[in-house]
Amino acid sequence: MFRGPDGAGADHNEGMHNDVTATGHAARIATVDALLPAPLPFRVHGDDTLLTAEAGETTAAGLATCTEVGPDSPQSIWRARVEHRLEVQLAGPDPAAGLDALLTRWDEHLHSLAQVGDAECAAVLSRPSRDTAGTTELLRHGFAPVGVIAVRPAARMAAPGPATTPGVCIRHATPDDLGTAMRLMLELQRYDAQFGKVTVRPGIEELLEKELLRQLERPEPQLWIAELYGRPLGMVLLQMPDETGWIGHRVAASRIGYLSSLAVSEAARSAGVGSALAAHAHQVFDEAGADVVLLHTAVANPRSTPFWYAQGYRPLWTGWQRRPAAR
């Protein structure tokens, strides 16, 4: 049920507020980005909490949730162990003021749940990248843009380049490539940890090895190795449209490809290996009939962000984080 500060009456009032806000939010978002899915009113389950706020004629609604993962979970690499999340909907003439009021309510809510200064507890919310209203308010509340879900529509062309890269050969990975894939993934994780999206934890080698073995043992693994003049120096890992239901709610498309990881050894950077792997991945997705391809990239990464935009991607959702959650 809806949870509000004033008992059952508040539940009903906040539910009505939520529905009205969702209608206005949907109309506003429809003008922002054609690839955004149509939003629906929030529905509260279990320990979720519905937060509402007003700023003049602007209304705001937020669905506050919390998830926790153990230190041995593969997901613990990509996030704080405890994540408080807020899904946001804003309707009215001043969405920035509405977001500011909603963030203030969320701060009050978080102080009842999170320990001040706990670095393994993060506050996270995602905003449509082209919906820039409220950016100043997010910064003032201590949030930083950390990651992006980037999208590449199937009809979008990458930057011009050669059809093939001299010296580069791309092939399916085999179980014999486990050591190469581990080396490349560890190099990637340690580099990405600088930008706030990745946490290098004790036991990361075991977590990565388990996931890579799972991929390599599949009948047709979507893990590919790039060799530069015979040396394995790059890899790309893909999720095909029948595996991407977990992220399908983020884009208005039927068949979605997801590019999980692309890693190139430091020794082969700027040699065209990454571009060759990306082109190969897009060919695989095109053959599978993907309407769009999604991937995650770190906002502050000076290599991956310009690289992916040069391959035809653009930001769809921007992930904002405050870690620790409670200040």
Task: Describe what you observe in this structure.
By secondary structure, the protein is α+β, with helices and mostly antiparallel strands. The protein has two domains: 139 residues, 3-Layer(aba) Sandwich (Aminopeptidase); 155 residues, Gcn5-related N-acetyltransferase (GNAT) (Aminopeptidase), CATH 3.40.630. Helix content is 29%, strand content 28%. The chain has seven helices and eleven strands. It has an eleven-stranded mixed beta sheet, with helices on both faces. Helix 2 links the parallel strand 3 and strand 4. Helix 4 packs across helix 5. The radius of gyration is 21 Å and the shape is globular. 38% of the residues are buried.
Largest sheet: 11 strands, mixed
Level-1 CATH class name of the largest domain: Alpha Beta
Give the end-to-end Cα distance, rounded to a whole number of Å: 29 Å
Helix content: 25-40%
Shape descriptor reads globular
Number of helices: 7
Strand order of the largest sheet: 1-2-3-4-11-5-10-9-8-7-6
* Poorly predicted spans: 1-10
Structural class: alpha+beta
Cα-based radius of gyration, to the nearest Å: 21 Å
- Strand proportion, as a percent range, falls in 25-35%
User: Could you give the count of β-strands?
Assistant: 11
Mean pLDDT equals 90
Under CATH, the topology of the largest domain can be stated as Aminopeptidase
- Assembly form of the protein: single chain
**In total, how many domains does the architecture comprise?**
2
What is the N-to-C order of secondary-structure elements (H for helix, E for strand)? Answer: HEEEHEHEEHHEEEHEHE
CATH architecture of the largest domain: 3-Layer(aba) Sandwich
